[in-house]
Design a protein that fits this description.
The complex is a heterotrimer of chains A (315), B (405) and C (286).
Chain A: H1 4-19, H2 26-51, H3 60-76, H4 81-103, H5 108-128, E1 138-139, H6 147-169, H7 171-181, H8 183-188, H9 193-219, E2 221-222, H10 224-227, H11 230-243, H12 250-268, H13 270-287, H14 292-297, H15 304-313
Antiparallel strand pairs in A: 1-2
Chain B: H1 2-17, E1 30-37, H2 44-63, E2 67-69, E3 72-82, H3 87-99, E4 105-107, H4 112-125, E5 129-131, E6 147-149, H5 159-167, E7 174-180, H6 183-198, E8 202-209, H7 217-226, E9 230-234, H8 237-249, E10 256-259, H9 266-272, E11 280-283, H10 299-310, H11 316-335, H12 340-348, E12 352-354, E13 357-359, E14 372-377, E15 380-386, E16 389-390
Parallel strand pairs in B: 1-3, 1-4, 4-5, 5-6, 7-8, 7-9, 9-10
Antiparallel strand pairs in B: 2-3, 11-14, 12-13, 14-15, 15-16
Chain C: H1 2-31, H2 38-56, H3 60-81, H4 91-113, E1 128-131, E2 134-137, H5 138-160, H6 162-172, H7 174-179, H8 184-209, H9 217-231, H10 236-256, H11 262-276
Antiparallel strand pairs in C: 1-2
The chains are: A mainly alpha (315), B alpha/beta (405), C mainly alpha (286).
Amino acid sequence: MRRIAPALVGLAVVVLVGAAPAVLSPFLVQFLINLFMLAVLAESWNIIGGFTGYASFGNVAFFGVGAYTTGVLLTRTALPFGLALTAGGALAMLFAAVIGMPILRLKGHYFAIATLGVAETMREVVYNLEVTGAGTGLVMPISRSPLPFFYVMLGLLVAATLVNWWLSASRFGYGLVAIREDEDAAAAMGIDTARYKTVAFALSGAFAGLTGGVFAYWITFIDPDAVFRVITTIQMIIMAVFGGMGTVLGPLLGAVVLASVSELLSTQLVALAELFNGFIIILVVLFMPRGLVDVLATRPFSLRRFADNVRAYRI
Amino acid sequence: MRRRAFVTGSLAGLAVGSLPVGRAAQAADQIVLGSAISQTGKYAREGKFYVDAYALTVEAINKAGGVKVGGRPYQLALKLYDDQSDPNLSVRLFTRLVTSDRVNFLLGPYSSGITIPASAVSEKYEIPMIQGGGASGKIFDRGYKYIFGTLPKAEFYFQSAIEAAVKLTPPVRTAALLYSNEAFDRSVADGARQWLKEWKVDKVYDEEYQPATQDFTSILAVIKSKGPDLVLVAGHVENALNFIRQSQAADVNPKMVVFTVGPPTADFRKTLGKAAELAYGITPWLPDMEVGGEVFASASQFAKQFQERFGYEADYHVAAGAACVLALKVAVEHASSLEPKKVRDALAALDVETLYGRVKFEPTGQIAMGQVLIQIQDGKVVPVYVSGKMLRKPVYPTPKWAERK
Amino acid sequence: MLTLQLLINGILLGGLYGIMALGMSLIWGVMNIVNIAHGALIMLGAYLTFWTFTLWGWDPFAALPLTILILFVYGYLLQRLVLNLVVRAQLFLTLLITFGVEVVMVNLARMFWSADLRQVTPAYAGANFSVGGLTIPYVRLWVFVTTVILSVSFLLLLERTRLGRAIRATSEELRAARLTGIPVTHIYAVTFGLGAALAGAAGGLWGMLFPITPIMGGALTLKSFVVAVLGGLGTMMGAIVGGLVLGLAESFSATYLGPTYPNAISFGLVVLILILRPAGILGRRS
């Protein structure tokens, strides 16, 4: 019974959200598509960053690879979107696996900088190739209705969340957590750390790539600066951290809250929106590094928790 | 359990809070023009020209009685967002303008790079968009029906420059082509290659640079070593600024240097001061041109009004932006309706004289207009050459940096 | 002849790259903080130079000592009051917080100083001299000389003074340093202040050559990463060597491969170096 209740609630939520386009304004449908996208990205980052403890600062590389693969196929071949999208996700996954092999041997800052380097290199490569449109970018064929995008993104979100849930309860997932907590001990216990890490990285890349592919077709236009932005990776990270990295629903929660607040601000106070984002990042890191999930789950709820967080990390 | 409640609750709250309340309440008899324009970011400078141009023209039209549709006068209103020079954000904002704000018509953004995706939105929702900030042919070669532009084709930008160059004494024989890795400049370069071939000018250098490039010293070193007579630089204002400053420091002295953007704009000349002297530029419009008509009797009257209102000189960006608003006004009046499709057809058939010149669109939606080659002399913009006619002899060849005073 | 000119260009600019990365390397090496706000500090230094030049007519070189002082104090306070709170947290949390600081600084700059392009153009801006077919702009040469002076002074400070010894001790072994009575929190703050001061000086120098905008910092942070990785993360000499290497690599690749390639190459190099030889050119293998 205890296992079924959460699943039923989850199903109810999905059905409710799925029915939403019938009553929502077109503008809100667009907003939700964007929200789902950010949530998938946060959940996908969570796989390598939250569970495995390898904080990648370049996941946008996979998003971009997926976006461009799908984009190039849509603009230069007659492939239908479904196939182009699958190819985008597959190529991103492959890319993550291949680049992961050497890069996952690095730790801490080195790993972070290397992943950032990968993302920047991919941006520059795409900037230089004619097939990807170089600096001009790619314009997709026009799609009239936003509904397919809504459901595909929702589907990706459900899938990504389910993968995270699977990780939280499976041997493979426990292996990743073991790597995060103490990689040497995990290896000593017989876990093939290299393989586990690469699989996690590839999974993370696959979701990011699929999201990128959908994004390309949805937004109708991509250029290197649009799909290889450092800020996209930072958004993924901050949403996962804000919600609670390493948890199943944390990244999703973080995305919902932060994207909504950001959207609200950007219409009312454009100039202040970014400034606000900056302060949020600082405050979150200082006061709730374990995320909203942690804050909500702790009782009794008290301000001391925040103070403790602050005191825990300083010199 | 608590977490789940939170999530469900927030999603439900969103759903309730967003139940459609119908079309955004508009004042009676109002036509709303919407746009997302670069007010911050790398295009902020140029974006401001359009914000101000739109504002002044809307004010002037309203003061002159507004727009007459079927006998009734309508007032124009503007709804502007900041796209932060980001094509992505632009697409989302234009989608919002159409689906949420329900504006009547769209005014375009600045730069071809942003106009290309933004026009996909207007095409998707079949709302006419008219823009004065994107010149690349790529905007108009997709068979779209709802995009119109008042800037002449990018591919033709360097045509008058090259034509003039071969008619000078001594005529230009070799040229260097330098352009930014961006939609507009790549189009300009495509065209330039054609004209260079047509006029039998030897191209000794042909390179693309990243838009964010600030250091041109290696490029300049190579150009200096090849010693071309003519140097064509396609890029945005910041690129042109850096190029001139660094070519002075590196002592590079071609006989003629032409920029796609920069020289006609007062701000550019002021920032560079004496270093801008004798640089060549391109513009489809000058304030002392003998054109005028709709709402503004002449180009100079418009320029004067603009200077008084905003405190800086109007350039062709401003005029092109004003022309967009005027074109919409006339089209709506001709169509005698606010229906997007009818107005679109009226725009396609438009032929009206304005402060910007004759506004008439080709079947692709882009205006057909000549470009004037200008040179900066004594800090002023001097027209040198247009459509086959040498208006005034330029100071040529440009004296070396060391010899200039 | 062209080759020689490219070589000179690369070295002159490379010196500036080196001083730019020096501040980042210091903070990284001593405190293990990767300062994403580094570019924003450079930007601040550039604006200080611009305002003293525009409002009071100060020569940009003369403004450097003031810029260094102000950025030092700013960096000290930033570390002591804000960053110190997370200095021992997971690495990427410090990355995140410095990112937040960067966003705040850039947006405040935008709000107060607008996004307009600013330039510092003293009377001697375009002056140059020729020697044997090479053209050398005066400003670039003096900027290079200044970076040499700053680098040498800084290295001397690190090697020969008590403060320098304290900094090095703290970076080697935090607990031991504390036990020997070194006021670690203060030293950390001084280190960050020094890093900020170096960034500010780099900004002042950069502002003499290139336009200044609130968003100029992002690309410069990335460049500093490349330099630091190339030369050897956390080593001071490495930053300088890395800067020269990058300057030369950019100069030559822009010419012989095409101006759109230098960035692709520098980032690709970063990835390759981290995979093959993370210690960089001069770093120790740890």
